[in-house]
Design brief:
Layout lengths: L7 E7 L14 H14 L11 E5 L3 H13 L7 E13 L3 E5 L5 E2 L4 E2 L4 E3 H9 L4 E9 L7 E2 L2 E2 L11 H9 L4 E4 L9 E2 L2 E2 H12 L12 E2 L1 H15 L6 E4 L9 E2 L7 E3 L2 H11 L9 H8 L1 H6 L11 E3 L8 E3 L1 H7 L5 E2 L1 E4 L6 E2 L6 E2 L7
Length: about 375
């Protein structure tokens, strides 16, 4: 499975300050961006990405936001990159089939009680722009869809255009990005998001679930990293437990690549440790320089049941100390060239191998201890 992390750029947009008096100020977006940065960049327990992959925009104007997106797309030299676009702020439906991300200079036209479309970023414009460079969109929206509700203008209440436009986001992203996309929304089309001084409830629980990790089961072991699909069930549970009035929605394209969002803090890796019985097998095959080739049954007779059941582990590529002798029936086991070098003190091997939950390979970690035949107990 390819590692897609170096193809990812995160663009985090938080808008809480609005020049137009008919757009309420929001308390949480700046904290939402801080939560996301901590989760993806700063916290070593969860972070999978580098500082250079994170672009943050606080209270941008519409031109600044468009310039940032254009600059990102212009810098793509090949297809297959991934843009994680995160937005926290006011979301405004545009007609029945589009949706707008409000910026700090978004304007409301009082006579029609609507936002001026040129003063905000259309969802369709976002998708069409990044699709030019064949970029996979991963879009997370923590928007207060109630941004204009309850505001009074000239004695009349401003009414949001048909709120079912939010439901059409999935159709828009599917039509432009085919089946290669992810869309996570903070609430359903007819519900309201919650804004607090500490950040949006949706973003708060997204960070909470990611920081707590997801435990595995015997039948379904935990993974080293978690994607949106992994996080969503518990995110939905926690948001609903806070308020039954709204819940997040997740839409995944069927061909979306396996995109990791965070490390799993509850992942318990499977390991193999170089054990004394393994050394016993090696010495028995070495036979003081007069090498032997033994069947598994002979290994059991000479080294015990534990060695009989586990001798194949010495053939794990990261160790590679023992191999099958070609053309022998019953199967016989012999030292490899690496095994001979290890026993003669010319080679060090990792004491512990860790199973990669994605590739299923046993590999040494970056900080693993390497041992030689002369320091087995050190």
């Amino acid at each position: 499975m390819p590692d897609l992390r170096n193809r990812v750029t995160i663009m985090a947009v938080g808008v809480g300050r609005y020049a137009d008096p008919f757009l309420p100020q929001l308390r949480g977006p700046e904290n939402d961006i801080d939560l996301l940065r901590d989760l993806l960049i700063d916290n070593p327990a969860t972070a999978l990405y580098e500082e250079t992959q994170f672009i943050e925009l606080f209270n941008p104007t519409i031109q600044q936001l468009r310039d940032a997106l254009n600059h990102y797309v212009s810098g793509r030299s090949a297809g297959g990159d991934i843009l994680l676009f995160y937005y926290s702020g006011h979301g405004i439906p545009i007609g029945r089939n589009d949706f707008g991300f409000a910026t700090t200079d978004t304007q409301i036209y009082p006579q029609a009680s609507k936002a001026l479309p040129l003063s905000l970023l259309r969802f369709s414009d976002l998708l069409n722009t990044i699709s030019i460079a064949n970029v996979t969109p991963i879009i997370i929206i923590d928007a207060c869809y109630s941004g204009l509700a309850g505001q009074t203008l000239a004695g009349a209440t401003i009414i949001i255009p048909p709120i079912d436009a939010v439901s059409n986001l999935r159709d828009s992203v599917h039509s432009i990005s085919a089946s290669n996309y992810a869309l996570l929304c903070s609430c359903a089309a007819d519900e309201l998001s919650v804004d607090t001084s500490g950040g949006g409830i949706f973003s708060h629980y997204l960070a909470n679930v990611a920081n707590n990790g997801i435990a595995g089961t015997r039948r379904n072991p935990s993974h080293q990293s978690l994607g949106l699909k992994d996080l969503f069930p518990e995110l939905q549970n926690q948001v609903l437990s806070y308020s039954g009035d709204f819940s997040p929605r997740l839409y995944l394209g069927p061909t979306l690549p396996d995109f990791p969002l965070v490390k799993n803090t509850r992942h318990s890796p499977t390991t193999e440790r170089f054990a004394p019985y393994m050394m016993n097998i090696l010495k028995t095959l070495w036979n003081d320089g007069d090498e032997q080739q033994l069947t598994p049954a002979e290994i059991r007779e000479n080294c015990g049941l534990g060695a009989y059941g586990n001798h194949s582990k010495l053939s794990l590529p990261a160790w590679g100390l023992v191999e099958n002798t070609p053309g022998t029936r019953p199967k016989r086991r012999r030292l490899t060239e690496r095994g001979r070098k290890f026993l003669s003190g010319e080679l060090k091997i990792p004491r512990i191998l860790t199973k990669d939950a994605d590739t299923m390979d046993y590999l040494p970690t970056d900080d693993v201890e390497y041992i030689s035949v002369n320091n087995m107990d050190n």
